[in-house]
Amino acid sequence: MKWLLVLIAATALTASAADISGNWKATADFGGQAMERTFTFKVEGTKLTGETTSSFAGKSTITNGKVEGDTVTFNIKVKFQDNEMDLTYKGKVNAAGNEIKFTVDGAGGQTIEWNAKKS
Predict the structure, then answer these.
(1) How far apart are the C-alpha atoms of 54 and 39, rounded to whole Å?
(2) How do residues 10-33 score in pLDDT, each as one tens digit?
């Protein structure tokens, strides 16, 4: 009986990770300039992989990605004006699972807020 409860608890924890797999379109304001970015996410358990594309920085591969409950975290490297930057994305998935609000640290010392919607 004890093992059955452990198995049920483990299944519930795994199932509680938001499934954000698929394509997303995000918008942000950076110094008064509107930016767009697309994401293609693939979730396996709590591991997040994929890629992202922006008109400013081109295509980047998602690394160190995790989905734990409604929390999403990952890193990307971008090259902008001959400078390579590591960006850290942290986000929360809304209850309906169709929107993620991200904050991004590492953009020249500024924090950028992205609003992503499932496409």
Answers:
(1) 9
(2) 444 444 678 899 999 999 987 788
